[in-house]
Amino acid sequence: MGGQVTREAQLRADIVEVGRRLYARGYTAANDGNISVRIDAERLLMTPTAVCKGFMTPEMMCITDLDGRKLAGERDPSSEIQMHLEVYRRRPDA
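The structure corresponding to this sequence follows.
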C-alpha cells in the first residue's frame, strides 16, 4: 500500500485526537466520556472503558458489532455501549 493509512487506522487516530482535545479543554475529567464511530455497516470502533480520554492510544480502541459483542481489542468497550448502539440502530446515517 506504500504508506497509505487504512480507514480503521485513521479512525483510531481521529478518536485519540478528539479525546485529547476534549480532555485538554476540560470537557472530560478522569475517565468521563466515550467516543465511537462506524467502521462499516456492521462494526463500530469505540473507546475502552475506564481510560482517560486525554491519554488514549490507537491500540486501546475496541471493535464491536452492532449487537455490542466485542470482536477485537484487549480492553472492554465503553460502559455506555448500549446508548451508542441505540443511536446507530435508530440513525443509520450516524
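The mean pLDDT is 91.
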